[in-house]
Amino acid sequence: MANITVLDQNTINKIAAGEVVERPMSVVKELLENAIDAKATAITVEIKDGGISFIRVTDNGCGIPGEEIPMAFLRHATSKIQSVEDLFTISSLGFRGEALASIASVSQVELITKTAAELTGFRYQIEGGLEKSMEEVGAPEGTTFIARNLFYNTPARKKFLKTAATEGAHVAGLVEKIAMSHPDISIRFIQNNQNKLHTSGNSNLKDMIYTIFGREIAANLLPVDQVIGDGRVTGFVGKPVIARNNRNFENYFINGRYIKSSIIAKAIEEAYKPFMMQHKYPFVMLHITMEPETLDVNVHPTKMELRFRDGEGVFVKLRDAVSQALAHRELIPKAELSRAQRTERREAERERERARAASPEPFEKKRIGLYEQTLKQLTSMPEDGFLKEGFEREARAERKLTPLRSQQASIGTNPPIPFPAAGSTVPDAPEVLADRPEQKTAAETSGQSSLAEASGQGRPAEPSQMELFDEKFLGKKARERHRLIGQLFDTYWLVEYNQQLFIIDQHAAHEKVLFERTMASLKTRDFGTQMISPPIILTLSMNEELLMKQYMDYFQGLGFEIEHFGGREYAVRGVPANLFSIAKRELLLEMLDSLSEDTQAGNPDLIYEKVASMSCKAAVKGNHAMTFAEADALIDQLLDMENPYACPHGRPTIISMSKYELEKKFKRIV
């Protein structure tokens, strides 16, 4: 065995750098956090070659006093804490005092800084942990930190870096996360002399989301603002329609710190479980504020992980906050046009805008002029009985047509107004049906839509998920105006309402009804048991018998009557009333199997939910003809559901298609 020796300082620094500086992204993270802790309101990050050859971070923060600059590059030198007690009340992003020392030990560093109290700034150079020079220079207030040739003195580490494009993508992703964690700071990102990101720093989180993620995400957000214990959660959660296949869009920040936490991720996904299919992950942008003493951020050198003093409490409160934001929303997905059709529609709308702005065609001007001339001639002729009667008719026609003519002149694209024939009259406008507002004549609808288009209103909205509004499709008032059309493929029911076609999946809808009824019975302890004869005899394996004994109270609580029948056999003499039609040996074994996967003992909610989900097997299946009365009753049952828009597995129960989408498909709208 070799003799024990004390490592030299250079080796110690490089080992420490291996913990803190993994890649260029690590350098940018530490420097950005230092700039934020320095109270900067504007920060610029610039990289070249993915940050391998050049990183520059400039801020307008408080700067570093000249006499403290060399000390800032020593290990465990920090201005964030003074004693061990401060570790339990940390409010800054950095505190270890290892970042600058680690970065300087594996790169060529240049620092330019100036405080408000000093007349001049300072330029400091350090390479591989060794000081090179320090001089006074003119500089604005703040700090500029430049790191060149990362890992130039540790080529073995440099070999493990990816390509410049990959490393640059990691840096870009980090800058976006930091920008979202501090929307009150203007952050600019430059990559290879190209501006990639520039936030305004106006503290508007939704503007930030639009800037980074685009219009589709920003248009499908639901606000969150809930008190959770001694803390608070604010931000936005995305509608299920914008779900993704990975967790990259799950963004959450604790006290302004971007972290990854399995507890928070599990809480978010648990809240989305009733609304989303398996293996889909939501978009969230949540800012969580908590008392510093309830957190332990001193877990890992990169500060990407932390521990909660009450992890279970955080899980429950955050899950409930997200669930509340999603609850009572009419989240019915709409059938959309294809991307090419949406582009075509936008082009058509722009063309109509240009046409509305144009003046009437020459022949239209000529026609209107002839009409005016005819009226003028009629007024100058003798008023005998025939002509007087004709003039009065024309005057009435003029009064009727004046608003339509002025409307057409402003639009310029509708068909010409027909000249009234001799002896004809212009009929009065038909009355609007009071009991069914949507039933209007074609002429009236055309006139109203033309006026709406001329004023810039009434244009078809972009396809999106339906939002909460006064009369929801499954509202009691709206229910009176549903028109049940019929069944499609013995699986889907078609309902017309409010210029929309709604399509209901009978199997998914019935699954939801059975599941929520079972869960409601669990909460109220209102169970019904149906006795069966002869009883079902189960022969269990050792593991299945262990599970049966472990969860016997839960099975009995659901309405099962099970007794030991000798050996490893059990007799099932009663089953829940809603499972009577499917109470078979295979179903009970499937319940046991589901409990053996990942259910934690002592958590009755998870156990009840797993068992209740089996009630879905009693739901009416697809390819099953239902009567109109049965379909009507199913829709009535959906009215009372807490979340009727997705089945227990996350599949939608209802989708909709607007009249506009249908007319577009049939080319009635070009």
Notable traits:
4 domains, Ribosomal Protein S5, domain 2, 39% helix, alpha+beta, 670 residues, 8-stranded mixed β-sheet
Characterise this structure.
The structure is a single chain. Strands 5-4-3-6-2-1-7-8 form an eight-stranded mixed sheet. It has a five-stranded mixed sheet with strand order 9-10-13-11-12, with helices on both faces. The chain has 670 residues and is an alpha+beta fold. It has four domains: 9-198, Heat Shock Protein 90; 205-326, Ribosomal Protein S5, domain 2 (2-Layer Sandwich); 339-426 and 439-453, no CATH class; 464-670, formyl-coa transferase, domain 3 (2-Layer Sandwich), CATH 3.30.1540.20. Helix content is 39%, strand content 20%. Helix 16 crosses helix 21. It is flat.
- Residues in β-strands, percent: 15-25%
Class per helix and strand makeup: alpha+beta
Which geometry do the CA atoms define? Answer: flat
Name given to the CATH architecture of the largest domain = 2-Layer Sandwich
The CATH superfamily of the largest domain is known as: MutL, C-terminal domain, dimerisation subdomain
Condensed summary:
This protein has 670 residues and is an alpha+beta fold.
Detail the topology: elements first, then pairings.
Layout: H1 9-20, H2 24-37, E1 42-48, E2 54-59, H3 69-72, H4 99-105, E3 108-114, E4 121-127, E5 130-137, E6 142-148, H5 155-158, H6 164-181, E7 186-191, E8 194-198, H7 205-213, H8 215-218, E9 221-228, E10 231-238, E11 250-254, E12 257-258, H9 262-272, E13 284-289, E14 295-296, E15 307-308, H10 311-326, H11 339-357, H12 362-380, H13 385-411, H14 442-454, H15 476-479, E16 483-488, E17 492-497, E18 500-505, H16 506-524, E19 529-539, H17 542-550, H18 552-558, E20 561-564, E21 569-576, H19 585-598, H20 604-613, H21 628-639, E22 654-658, H22 659-665
Parallel strand pairs: 1-7, 11-13
Antiparallel strand pairs: 1-2, 2-6, 3-4, 3-6, 4-5, 7-8, 9-10, 10-13, 11-12, 14-15, 16-17, 17-18, 18-22, 19-21, 20-21
